[in-house]
Amino acid sequence: MLPSRLALFTLACVPALLVACMSIDEVGGARASRDRRDKVTIRGSDTMVILAQRWAEVFMQSRDEASVQVSGGGSGTGITGLIDRTTDIATASRKAKDSERARVEAPCDAGTSRRKKLVETIVALDAVAVYVHDDNPIAALTLPQVKAIFRGHTTDWSALGLDLGPLVLYSRENNSGTYAFFKEVVLHDEDFAAEAQTLPGTSAVINAVSKDPGAIGYGGIGFATGARVVPILLPDGRTVSPSRENAANGTYPLTRPLFLYTVDEPAGLAKDYIEFALSEPGQALVEELGYFPLASERTP
Amino acid sequence: MSRRRGIPRWHGVAEFFIVFLAMAAIAAIILIFTFIAREALPLLWEKTETLERAHLVVPQLWHGYEEPVAVWQPVGKVPKYNILPLFVGTLKVTVLAMLISAPIGLASAVYLSHYASRRVREVVKPVIELLAGIPSVVLGFFGLMLIATWVHATFGFKYRLNGFVAAIALSVTIIPIIFTICEDALTAVPRPLIEGAIALGARTHQVALRVAIPAALPGIAAAMVLGFGRAIGETIVVLMASGNAAVVDLLDWSASVRTITATIAAELGEVPRGDEHWRVLFLLGSLLFLMTFLLNTFATFTVARLSARLRGETR
Question: What was the ipTM of the complex prediction?
Fold first, then answer.
């Protein structure tokens, strides 16, 4: 019986292997049909998900036939979606990395020689705030102090003159655009302390900070309920909080643009959606949700 | 397949299908491993700008540090992919969860098979087995909200979410596995052995400790290994309850930990396909697969040797 079993096994394996090898290249190939005019999918930044959602709601009110699907997951997720062509618009709270741009622009079908282009549109401004527990009396922090805290060099509130015990750091998962922004601007591309706990989503950070008197975290300003925002003490002695004016005139140092990315110039429904986001009612929604609209010369 | 006399033709067809199904399971395992390894292996020969293979395990003196460190920070200008913190985290949570659940699982199995009355047994056994049916995401949530608060209030650890909280939540998932298999092994001990011991005047605890447990040792060992395998592969409980900070500290159980499984779950959806980060995650997946595979093989081998020895003693 042994030889025949072996033969059977081979029989079972060979077609399965063939199928698997062929289909491996199709993983993630559930390509959104980008020409269907009545549907557009938007994916990416968790910071921007409520904004994109709100735009979609109002946008759909005026366009009965349109369906806009919004989901989060992180800026990296959105751009990965563009690479796989599973999403039409990617939201991102950071600029696309060169490696990501190269992947989006690489021709995906051997037949089409025309190179794709990653198109970037700035749609709003966001300020990243440093959050502490509501009862924390700290007046302001300088950026070097924030850096020392998140690098793990300052480990106790007593170093800042407060009797709150050890510092407990809350950070974001590394797919987050806010993580990348904070690492670049505050930590100057050095690493977060290994002890920093990584949480999925800004609201999770705020939630954790609101429960822990010794906690410190960071996140987009749109989520500022339940925890206290610490103003930043600038080298020239001014104390700035993340307000609209300070973001617009650039004095608040942790201000960043929020992006929408598309593959090639947006067309059809995606184009209308982006135009709506940049329009006056779209920018009014930006403000309503606690982000900052673009400076007036940029809004049409 | 030559037709034997007196055997109907459909027997051959049925046999073909049964063998086919059995082999399909083996083929599935081979294919899964092939797929995972296929994504990870290019790391071994592909030239990349930022990743050196030695950096995966050897601590490096990176810019901004005073001494060589093992860090897992795969996103940033200088990505750092040291997998040691993740192994330490996985090992820590798994071992701690086993330390909690192995005694509980074994003790409840001994109690139910030797001490409990029939009626108690009929109620308690299904209830413990019901624990296995709780979805692990629910346990993770339970760990995140309740166990974390309780541990924080009781022990006053610095971090609310830590390896200890995750291990407690994790042990809820593996206690039923250890219990069920141990209990089966203990009830399967031949009656004559137990009755013989009782006839010689042994008390219940003597029967349990000196006769039943040694005779059921292969089954108990299998239970521990299966529990360990489940704990090492469990994802969502540790992702939710452990805090996910990649700390390298084998002994401090109050520190937050980041396991291999949680890292894969949290990061794989977000990295571009074919990126070095993607490949390192698949490498982690392959290593996890190899670890459980070796563990299971080792266990099968040990169990076989143990049962052979026991048969030699009892005959």
Answer: 0.76
* pLDDT tens-digit map of A71-127: 888 888 888 888 888 899 999 988 888 888 888 887 655 555 567 888 999 999 888
Q: Please give the class, per CATH, of domain B81-314.
A: mainly alpha
CB contact under 8 A, B76 and A196: no
- In this structure, of A129-143, A246-260, B144-158, B268-282, the range with the lowest mean pLDDT score is B268-282
Q: What is the pLDDT of residues A179-200, one digit of tens each?
A: 988 998 999 988 899 889 988 7
Closest-CA distance of chain B to residue A241, Å: 27
Query: Residues of A with CB below 8 A from B24's CB?
Result: 12, 16
Q: Does A195 touch chain B (CB under 8 A)?
A: yes
Residue whose pair of structure tokens reads 């599935």 in the numeric block: B28
Give this prediction's pTM.
Answer: 0.77
In chain A the domains, ranked by start, together with CATH numbers, are 36-125+257-288 (3.40.190.10), 126-255 (3.40.190.10)
Task: Give per-residue burial for A234-268: e unless 16+ CB within 10 Å, then b.
Answer: eeeeeebebebebbbeeebbbbbbbbbbbbeebeb
Which residues between 8 and 37 in chain B have a beta carbon less than 8 angstroms from any beta carbon of chain A? 16, 19-20, 23-24, 26-28, 30-31, 34-35
- Beta-carbon-side half-sphere exposure of residue A23 (alpha carbons within 13 Å): 10
| Angle at B238 (CA atoms; ends B236, B241), nearest 5 degrees | 105
A226 conformational bin, left if phi > 0, alpha if psi -120 to 50, beta if neither:
left
